[in-house]
Write a structure and sequence with these properties.
alpha+beta; 4 strands; globular
């Protein structure tokens, strides 16, 4: 049974960014039933995240880009802030 996915925000209608305590995950929806697949796992920084997004041909919509721009550079910095806010 797959683990629960924590969606951070959508990048467009087919791709979204999720996370766990180790990393951001670039994910896509597969099929019409809302099944998802994690494609890339990024525990380092936004440069690597952006490279994975580009390598997978993901076109980010305006809302997704705005949220992506607000992420801190390093995953560990994001996680420290997120985990403090969300217990």
């Amino acid at each position: 049974m797959p683990g629960r996915i924590n969606i951070l925000f959508p990048l467009n209608n087919s791709w979204f960014l999720s996370y766990d305590h180790n990393q951001w995950m670039l994910c896509c929806y597969v099929g019409d039933e809302g099944v998802h697949r994690a494609i890339s796992f990024i525990g380092s920084n936004k440069d690597v995240l952006l490279r994975c997004i580009a390598d997978n041909g993901v076109h980010i919509d305006g809302a997704g880009q705005s949220k992506l721009d607000k992420l801190p550079y390093k995953f560990t910095d994001w996680w420290k802030t997120y985990s403090k806010k969300n217990g």
